[in-house]
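A favour, since you know our structure tokens better than I do. Just paste the record in under my message, thanks.
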Amino acid sequence: MLTQAVATYCRAGVWYVTLLMLSVAALACVYMLASRGHFEGLNMLELSRVGGIVWVGRPLLFLRSMTALCLLSTATLELHTSGYRSYFAAVPTPWYKIALAAGEVTWLVSVVNDVALIVTKEYSMYYTTANSLLVWLIVATLAGASPVEATLALSPHCQVAQLDLLVTCAAGDLVIGQVRRLLALICIVIGCNMVCFGVVRCCMRRPQSRVTSLLLSSGAKYLFLHDGRLVDEVYYLDRASAAIAGLLTLRVGHVMYALDIKLWRLFPVSLPRTQHECPLRDAALPLCNLERESSTPNTVH
């Protein structure tokens, strides 16, 4: 019953993460249309790394990745019947299921990358994509080339449960999972992160990030593209990227209201009455690029 309860809980968690991420993706699409296509397209690729951390959180993303790790660490057995005989048979996992399960492991990569932002900082955007692809490739290759096999240890014995009424017998132990494979997959995720960061750290000089808005999460600060969006110490964040980063915006006249779901606070931002030369800025959320932001409404002149 405990195993069934855990499996039910994990399944509910996976469904919750899936539905919430689909909702965030749909919300970002709405802002794309509302902005008339003026958004940073490459930022949309950070939906899992930035949006997943902000909207779902590390614990549930870790839970989802652990379900994939457990599947990849478990052998597949099916009950077959032949005449008067029933037996378990090992069934190879189809390649597409292996690929999907290996892709689900990248949720753990997103969690590790987010925790590692304390150290990696500006280097993060240069290796996170390669890190995810490398983990996916290694995990899929390992699961396909060396799948987990079930083991059976025969040790028949019987014992009397109730005198003259009930006798229980056990033929042996059937093991379908490997803890070593589970730990190996976790080590692959952490090891690939360290290797990719080390390569980038050695091959390039430390880039500098000029974006200091405290309304951005660490993932949005270090993984989003900010080229051409910082003008006169005002950072213009497109509304689709803002939604992924946890900032829901609504424009009413010359005021744009931003609800930060990370803080559950509403920030009204006064927009300039004159149009900018760049339409990207007209459709963006202006944020004061200061070291410290007060809780009072921001005003952009």
In short: The first helix runs from residue 2 to 34.
